[in-house]
Amino acid sequence: MEPTSSRTELLEELSRTQNIEIQARNDQKQIHGLLIELHGYISDSLTFSFGTNDSAIYRTEKLSPGIVDYRYRSDWYSTLCFLTFEPRTDSIDGELQIEYKFFGE
After folding, report:
1. What is the mean pLDDT of the chain?
2. Fewest CB atoms within 10 Å of the CB: 40, 52, 54, 63?
3. CA 103 to CA 14: how far, in whole Å?
4. Which pTM was predicted?
5. Distance of CA 92 to the CA centre of its chain
6. 18-29 mean pLDDT
């Protein structure tokens, strides 16, 4: 079954570590996939991690300064995903739009 429409979060404060919890819609069952897209601009490097909870990291990516156009799609079997954004310095500027879809029935 196709996912419901995508959901979006805007991350404007990039100068401190932030944790964001995203979740499937209440009416979605049998989650089997996840799509995460990040779009925007950052003035310095940023580490982006995600996992099934706030201590079990599944994947970590380093985002380079400049225009961000990141896309990740994979199998995923949880209704939750915890995203962590950690700046290299506290003087980073910019904003990121987080778009995500959980695939399920």
Report:
1. 90
2. 54
3. 28
4. 0.88
5. 18
6. 91
Instruction: Identify the residue whose tokens are 């982006």.
Output: 48
State residue 3's pLDDT score. 42
CA dihedral 11, 42, 5, 29 (to 10 degrees): -70
Reduce the secondary structure of the chain to three states and give it as a string. CCCCCCEEEEECCCCCCEEEEEECCCCCCCCCEEEEEEEEEECCCEEEEEECCCCCEEEEEEECCEEEEEEEEEECCCCEEEEEEEECCCCCCEEEEEEEEEECC
Q: Grade residue 39 by pLDDT with cuts at 50, 70 and 90.
A: very high
CB 98 within 8 A of CB 50: no
State pLDDT tens for residues 58-87: 999 999 999 999 999 999 999 999 999 999
| Token pair recorded at residue 55 | 């201590």
Cα–Cα distances (Å) from 90 to 41, 54, 100, in that order, read 16, 22, 26
